[in-house]
Amino acid sequence: MSNNIEKGNKKVINAWAFYDWANSVYPLVITTAIFPIFYESYVDESVLFFGHQWISTALITVLSATYFLLLVLTIPFLTGIADNAGNKKSFMRFFCYLGSSSCILLAFFNNKHLELSLLIYIIAGIGFWSSLVFYNAFLPEIAHEKDHDRLSARGFSMGYVGSVILLLICLTLIFTSPEDSRSLYTRLCFVLTGLWWFGFSHVTFKQLPNGGAIKLNDKSTYKQGFKEIVKVWGEVRKTVRLKRFIFSFFVYSMAVQTVMLVAVYFGTKEINWGEGADAKMGLIISVLLIQLIAIPGAILLSKLSEKKGNLFALKVVLFLWVVLCFCAGYQPVEYLNFILGEKMSPNYIVSEPFDFYCIAGFVGLVMGGVQSLSRSTFSKFIPSNTKDTSSYFSFYDISEKLGIVIGMLAYGFIEQLTGSARNSIVALVVFFAVGLILMFFVPKEEKSNNL
Predict the structure, then answer these.
(1) How is the chain split into domains, by residue range?
(2) Residue 275 neighbours by CB distance under 10 Å
(3) Beta bridge mates, 52
(4) Is 194 exposed, middle or buried (0-12, 13-18, 19+ CB in 10 A)?
């Protein structure tokens, strides 16, 4: 296929959106639903990792934050090289293969070789998040600006549908198998996740254009890649609307991604699920609920953005996030106790399974919307004459990844300090509120850089 991309080409657009169908099984099965439950049940609460004793959940949180920090340091360099060589597709394909094969290798997870097993887990995450940078960078190249919201929402919706289908297949395998074989079938789910991601990604790769050859042994390639990053950063600084949006996105990403990554761990500790299989099924039902409601949520928010604009829609969804996180933390009685000096017994708004299902439903409604709108809004704010979209989206990705690092560390530190995950959730309200405030300073139209 030619390197030139015809904007609005339906085959290319549909194939691009289909990558969400392919790769969304990773965040659902590996980071959200099945692997966390497998990890908590398979690994002891206290583990030895490179000679140091760790709480198992704290270890996985710290390792996740660490590989996100590694991504922050490497992705900008890679995107600079990709734009210089004109070959986003090759990088996207490489990280897709790296991530999907690592998912398959998770089937051999062994607590006797925990360091190697968790290294595979880290590589899977690096593959997923890195491939997304190059994937997102195609959006402004393949679609007209007026279609960005709709296409971004379509991609997320397809991802939710595809991941739910695979999750239902995995749940059927696990819960219809003999109890003594469930560990084996759970591991098989990791294999299915990798195969699904690898196989369906080729629908996308078939239509996306090829680029020029990349010579990684050529020093000029690295030099040009670095120059590309410096140039784009200078352009971002001059673009008031884009720069201010990045600041807002950076802050509220600390909360959005943290909520998504720790939801299952919060539900495990703070909700009265009961014992055994019922507890696991309750958690998975809540995850399914989030995924299913996220589909109409992404579509509704894209409709709202068409009528009222992206910035208005984002302000609405961020306000809803503030309310949801507040409800997931404490009931107002707690604050009355503090103000009045009384000692009424705590009565949490979200403590029973039904409460968690309700909050999960609302989270699903705003989760898909904030992700798809953030991506499409950023793509609209990129200067229309730019060709180095990978480098632009690296700044978007840096903001998101740094936000994840800060958000997860803040969540873990507050829980460790106070002994309650609810305090950590309430603290996320601050990130959402500050992100919302910063959003009011993003101009609707680009203006001169007089700050």
Answers:
(1) 10-439
(2) 6
(3) 49
(4) buried
Q: Please list the alpha-helical segments (H only) found in 24-87.
A: 25, 34-42, 56-85
Q: Which amino acid is at 314?
A: L
Decide if pLDDT at 195 tops 80.
yes
> Residue 281 and residue 287: Cα distance in Å, rounded?
10
pLDDT category at 336 given cuts 50, 70, 90 is very low
Q: 41-54, pLDDT tens digit by residue?
A: 788 777 788 877 77
CA-CA-CA-CA torsion sign (436, 440, 445, 449): negative
Spatial neighbors of 301 by CB under 8 A, at least 6 apart, are: 153, 313, 317, 366, 368, 369, 370, 372, 373
Higher pLDDT residue, 269 or 15?
Answer: 15
Sign of CA dihedral 21, 170, 325, 247: negative
**What are the pLDDT digits (tens) for 197-250?**
999 999 999 988 776 555 555 555 556 656 666 777 787 778 888 889 988 999
CATH number for region 10-439 = 1.20.1250.20
Residues in contact with 154: Cβ distance below 8 Å, sequence separation at least 6, in sequence order = 17
* Two tokens, residue 306: 């068409």
**Residue from 281, 248, 251, 260 nearest 364 by CA:** 260
- Burial call 18-52: b when 16+ CB within 10 Å, e when fewer: bbbbbbbbbbbbbbbbbbbbbbbebbeeebeeeee
331 within 8 A of 257, measured Cβ to Cβ: no
Query: Which residues, 6 or more positions from 385, have their beta carbon under 8 angstroms from its beta carbon?
Result: none
Taking the C-alpha atoms of residue 131 and residue 95, their distance in angstroms, rounded to an integer, is 5
Q: Tokens in use for 212?
A: 């020029």
CA distances from 201 to 180, 317, 415 (A): 34, 31, 38
